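Subject: sequence -> structure tokens, single chain

Hey, anyone have a minute? Need the predicted structure for the following. Not urgent.
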Amino acid sequence: MVDRFQKTAIARFGRWQTLSRFSKFSKKTTTAVAITLSLVFLTLAAAEPVLSSSENGTTRRTLNAILLVDVSRSMLAEDGPGGASRLEAGILAIEKLFEAYPDGRFGLVIYTDEVTVYPPTFDHTALSFILRDVLENYSSAVRGEGSDPITALNEAGKLIKELPYTVDAVFLISDGGKSLSPIDIHPPLAPVLKKLKGLGVHLVVIGVGGLIPAAIPVYADDGVLIGYHQYQGVVVYTALSEISLKSFADGTSGRYLRLTDTNDLVAIARSENLDSQPIAQESTTSLVWLPVTISILLTALWLRPRIS
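Reply:
Had a minute. Here:
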């Protein structure tokens, strides 16, 4: 008799109706909580949570470099790749380099016979803006005449020496000229090159322009061609001085490349393995399954009494 009573009591205790008497939450309240939690976890799943880890991630390489850009007036001659000016062709190639190495630090040195230095930064957009401003507002943005690559390289060397991280390369972008002739530059440039070599920096000389002399166009503020640059009443013609640039590269144990395509800087950086800086890539594991699973379990718990 007692044994039968115990069995009946235990069976009744396992029913929802009996359990609800001992709980401060009603069935209606518990159902609402289950549905709410289920929706919360579904919302979390929609956010596509991931678990990030850099310890087990793969490693890729990036490039840290200083860009020396000749902005002398001859760089405005429009005989670059695709009919662009020499300066614009150089800028387009630099922007391709930024795209290829978004994690790279790039410094900028623009020079005529005066030098302006911008320390390395991850903000490639700012560097592009500086170069574009020179191109589009040349008369107001550029100071000085001629070009002085010796001072520019010297400033690059000073900058690299002060940096707490490694710089892989210096890219010198120019159309050449007397300032780069072997006789004029090698004696004063020797200490600069020794400094760069001691720092393990590779020098890449990029020649921009055509071999046939071209005039330098002059435009009004509204972009209309109004003539060509003159010196003492005579139109000035200028061509790429490949001999001086090649001689300069050879004398500095550097590499010379004539720019024929905007991807050339990226190509030489990769072919010469200049991109030596390791970047740890984060490995990610999707956790979408976790909130979805919890949501399904909550829904199942809510439906179970109804099915019973």
